[in-house]
Write a structure and sequence with these properties.
Elements: H1 5-28, H2 38-61, H3 67-83, H4 86-98, H5 102-131
Helix pairs in contact: 1-3, 2-3, 2-5, 4-5
């Protein structure tokens, strides 16, 4: 089975959009050394919520085929995958820890993961409610 180039293109194009939006926000609101990296934090938590909402809506609306599959791959995998950033999150947590801000680094890492999970669950729940009957 070969790669579906159209679907791959949706993921690539979506990823470019999500990455560009994240980069724009990170450049507009850069983290200051030794301080809480709010931009990445908000991006990841809001992205987890939005992805959960999207996937909840799509799965409640019907089978993963046609337009629903295109949206899942283009927006979910592509845009939201490019928008959120676990790698930057980890670099920022590590930077806080290495610069002696042990409490802030540990809190940033723990809270980022916990709130990301809670946001994804809340988004999933909301999306499932909006997807029924869609």
């Amino acid at each position: 089975m070969g790669v579906n180039r159209r679907l791959l293109g949706l993921v690539v194009a979506g990823g470019a959009v999500g990455t560009a939006v994240r980069a724009g926000l990170e450049n507009a609101f850069p983290a200051q050394p030794g301080s809480w990296p709010w931009t990445t934090f908000v991006i990841n938590v809001s992205g987890a919520f939005l992805l959960g909402a999207l996937l909840g809506h799509l799965t409640a609306a019907g089978a993963d085929e046609g337009v629903r599959r295109d949206v899942r791959l283009g927006v979910g995998t592509g845009v939201m995958g490019g928008f959120t950033t676990y790698s930057t999150f980890m670099v920022e947590a590590d930077s806080l820890l290495r610069s002696g801000h042990l409490g802030a680094g540990a809190l940033y890492a723990g809270l980022g993961v916990l709130l990301g999970l809670l946001a994804a669950a809340a988004g999933l729940s909301l999306g499932q409610r909006t997807g029924r009957g869609a």
